Amino acid sequence: MKGGRKPGERSYPPRVGGVRPSQLLYSFGVGALVDLPNMSGIIAGLDDWEETNQIEIAEERLIKAIKADPSLGLPNVRSLRTAPFLEETRSPFDEWAWTGVPILPFPRWMRCQGCNTLTTVDGGLLELTLAFRADKARYVHKNCGKGRPPTAVPARFVVACPDGHIDDFPWNEYVHSKTGGVCQAGGARLRAMDSGTGSRSTDLIVECTQCGQKRRMTNAFNENASSVLPQCRGRHAHLRTFEEGGCEHQVRPMLLGASNAWFAATRSVLAIPTSADASSIAFDAAWPAIEDPEAPINEEGELKFAVARDPRLAKLKGFTVSDLWAAIVERRTGSALTPEDADVLRPEWAVFTGSGKYIDSHDFRLGTPRPIPGFPGLGTVLAVDRIREVVALCGFTRIEGPDSGLASDVDTGPVYAPISKAKKLEWLPAAEVRGEGIFLRFPETTVDSWLDVVSGSNQIESLREAHHRWRRSRGQTDLDAGWPGARYVLIHSLSHALIRELALECGYSTASIRERIYAREQIGSAEPMAGVFLYTAAPDSEGTLGGLVALADPTEFGRLLGSAMERSRLCSSDPMCSGHLPNENETALHNAACHACLFLPETSCERANRYLDRNVLVSTLAGAGVHYPSRG
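The structure assignment produced for this chain is given below.
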């Protein structure tokens, strides 16, 4: 039985610090803060990653999309690789024990649990014990005077800025702000003590025991905090570097482990086999071996030898070496990129709707689109039996997420923090998952008719004005940039209603089902898009078990659609929810939506629960008159 063990065999607990491949992209990527049992750290940049024990992931379309996107600034990327990994053995001294993603101690400031002394890890008062054991490694205050040296824990606060910099909280400067950041008694010694009930994280008093100056941490979070906090030093703690020329921003204090300390900037594609040519298929399968980090093939002579000896290249034996080498050179140098290469959705839309070419394979298999009984306004449903999604980490942001009201262009877009010191980064960390899904296509004629009705309506215009306020508050001048339009609001709202309904039937939680929305107006010769792909995926080589795609039967899917629509009519927060329109006193970017009706976990929604409105799906208590004619 899977997970069982033989009689007498010892069971081993999971590795301390072990994470899934996808978590290294979405939660604990380069520059993110992580917690170990007794200390805190930050994931180191790619320069510190060992390039052995990695697996290359072949996905040329994603590489082209990343290179062609000017906002990412990664024109030299050539490959995608998994994190270093080796299977665990019985011996803790084998190579697996020191193979993985490196982390650096952060923050440097620690607090003794015995005497409340605040000091740095290199201040001479702390000692690192059991450094070779991730589960027991800790800093102790060796001369605390409280008996056995107590464990020192990471300081509670750090500072960051919107340009992706993060630094230790300036404890000395903060406590001594009245005397220019310098202790008048010389040799500052700090102590942190909880104040009041200690129910809030800022219920802390920091005191210098040398000169007697003290400050409450609540002052650092006040509106006038700029008067007591310094300018950002431009520190990239994960790279151990400082920005050249410094940083123009004022630092902002944040709690260690705050959710806005790190946002991943990722790009993903659905892997679509587009050529039936046998040489292309064999070449794509052999590409990871050709670009093996330990022994890449760099000459035609090496290729001839490798094809004859390496079993990973056995499928290439039927092709001439000169043709294979020409293909390798072409892929490595790349053809001239166009703006269309950055568009990852258009090729997928073409395949889902039948206008693009593809071949069935182990990683991609489509059913036949069929109409949904009783819902002519919702077009056709398509079962997607097999998919493979490849995701790459391209950078990260702090304070504000990549889509936090900032346009995705090189001039006004968010500032992505670098994940490497290299000026010409040639590889990115990536992960692949396999699964299944359901594709729903809206009929364009019905969508166009509905858009004519809702254009200029109070519902849509209120949301658009909220988008303008949101952009203006972030210093942007092009207020319409990033506005997805009424088409997107419709498809996004139905997507959320469907995911909540599907989760009740398919066996997967709402957090396991994700959306991929195709919503665009016609631009030039490019046809408009109106559809949504709902899918679930797992890192297992066989993917998922079919519980979601089984619901793509038109009759069954129609029943689920009817239930989703009926649930959307009423919310436990009505009438406040159904009548909600964002106003000038709030930052909401949704109309009739809340946690009781349409909101989803952040792993499911591509827009962080923004641009939602139940009123565009059905007639609610608000009587807005903008609902889509899904039943014809």
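Interim note for the steering committee: The mean pLDDT is 86. The radius of gyration is 27 Å.
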